[in-house]
């Protein structure tokens, strides 16, 4: 069958539909009255809730840090300050995602629109990557000058290697927890489970879009 | 408002085949097809006020309908809020084509169904005989890229139908 015959076949199908297809006008009129339906609304509402909870949490941590100032060690204060900074960055990333959701426009070209949607879903992974930056604080919050002076061997040969390991792991995860690494084995182990499946599918679709754009 | 609604109804009536063909290509299941058709019409109506006359009406319609269809196709939970329970938006009277044509049409639809969502969009536009320029505007790739991809689709189609 030649291509021209295939086009003609499609035209015949179109003619058949012209005769046999009708749309229920009552339902269309009903659809015109609907206002609140939006497929991205649940995702947006979830992110708004996360931002509100995040802000309340950040305020509590900031309050705690402020009142801890005269009594706590410098190491504990720096650890909490890093935790607070990472929390604020994560909140800002969620705010950015909410803005992106509000900018979604179905009348954009397909590549632009689908890329935006897939990036939006996949960006949850980036928030997790940022959160890994606070990994070192779990090994620094309990350090005191007393510990350094009284048990220097323990500090330099046990505590410090742990701090170095956590710092290295935190920076490595921050750099590598990215949807681009979704095919790597460690990534698959880390993001295994149904709750990650839609994010991983978005990552695959982003690759599909990238390949499609190539000649 | 009333005038806009009427105008929109007319446009949907004129383009009902376009909507149906897209729904049929992205959904195998009749209930999903019904939901997708409702979603497409709803999104078209939502964007109707912002329709930009710089674009052709068909470009605007294809962009929205295909974007909604691709997003719907990729969604895990497909159910949407169907309006007027018990009634159907799509009503179709079975009108058979000649036996040979019906078989070829089924083979063509099977071929379309097996394509990836973006290739499917391109294939539909090719069958609707859209110009390379319009396809490029709808999809968001260059006209040269459209031409290359259409060439490949033609080749695939030829192989598919020569093996029949």
UniProtKB/TrEMBL annotation, chain A:
Keywords on record: Membrane, Transmembrane, Transmembrane helix
Superkingdom in the source lineage: Bacteria
Record field: transmembrane: 48-68, 74-96, 117-135, 155-174
Protein name: Uncharacterized protein
Organism, scientific name: Pedobacter planticolens
UniProtKB/TrEMBL annotation, chain B:
UniProt cross-references to InterPro entries, sorted A to Z: RNA_pol_sigma-70-like (IPR039425), RNA_pol_sigma-70_dom (IPR014284), RNA_pol_sigma70_r2 (IPR007627), RNA_pol_sigma70_r4_t2 (IPR013249), RNA_pol_sigma_r2 (IPR013325), RNA_pol_sigma_r3/r4-like (IPR013324), WH-like_DNA-bd_sf (IPR036388)
Organism field: Pedobacter planticolens
Organism superkingdom: Bacteria
Designated name of the protein: Sigma-70 family RNA polymerase sigma factor
Keyword Transmembrane helix: no
Record domain RNA polymerase sigma-70 region: where: 12-78
Family: Belongs to the sigma-70 factor family. ECF subfamily.
Keyword Coiled coil assigned: no
Gene Ontology biological-process entries: DNA-templated transcription initiation
Pfam families given in the database record: Sigma70_r2, Sigma70_r4_2
Single GO MF annotation: sigma factor activity
Residue span(s) of domain RNA polymerase sigma factor 70 region 4 type: 106-157
UniProt keyword list: Sigma factor, Transcription, Transcription regulation
């Amino acid at each position: 069958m030649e291509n021209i015959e295939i086009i003609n076949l499609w035209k015949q199908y179109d003619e058949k539909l012209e005769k046999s297809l009708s749309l229920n006008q009552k339902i269309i009129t009903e659809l015109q009255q609907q206002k609140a339906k939006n497929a991205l609304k649940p995702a947006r509402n979830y992110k708004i809730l996360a931002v509100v909870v995040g802000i309340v949490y950040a305020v509590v941590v900031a309050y705690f840090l402020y009142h801890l100032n005269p009594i706590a060690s410098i190491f504990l204060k720096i650890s909490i300050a890093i935790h607070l900074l990472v929390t604020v960055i994560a909140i800002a990333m969620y705010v950015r995602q909410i803005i992106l959701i509000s900018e979604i426009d179905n009348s954009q070209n397909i590549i632009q629109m689908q890329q935006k949607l897939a990036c939006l879903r996949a960006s949850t992974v980036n928030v997790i990557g940022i959160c890994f930056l606070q990994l070192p604080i779990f090994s620094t919050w309990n350090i005191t000058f007393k510990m350094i002076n009284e048990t220097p061997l323990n500090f330099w040969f046990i505590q410090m290697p742990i701090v170095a390991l956590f710092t290295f792991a935190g920076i490595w995860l921050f750099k590598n927890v990215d949807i681009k690494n979704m095919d790597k084995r460690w990534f698959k182990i880390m993001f295994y489970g149904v709750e990650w499946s839609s994010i991983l599918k978005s990552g695959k679709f982003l690759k599909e879009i990238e390949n499609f754009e190539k000649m | 408002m009333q005038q806009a609604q009427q105008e929109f109804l007319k446009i949907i009536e004129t383009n009902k085949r376009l909507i149906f063909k897209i729904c049929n290509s992205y959904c195998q299941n009749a209930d999903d097809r019904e939901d997708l058709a409702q979603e497409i019409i709803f999104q078209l109506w939502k964007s109707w006020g912002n329709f930009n006359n710089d674009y052709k009406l068909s470009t605007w319609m294809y962009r929205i309908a295909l974007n909604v269809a691709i997003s719907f196709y990729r969604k895990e939970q497909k159910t949407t809020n169907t309006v007027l329970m018990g009634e159907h938006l799509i009503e179709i009277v079975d009108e058979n084509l000649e036996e040979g044509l019906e078989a070829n049409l089924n083979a063509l639809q099977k071929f379309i169904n097996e394509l990836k969502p973006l290739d499917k969009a391109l294939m539909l536009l090719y069958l609707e005989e859209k110009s390379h320029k319009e396809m490029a505007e709808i999809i968001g790739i260059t006209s040269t890229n459209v031409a290359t991809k259409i060439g490949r689709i033609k080749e695939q189609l030829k192989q598919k139908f020569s093996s029949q």
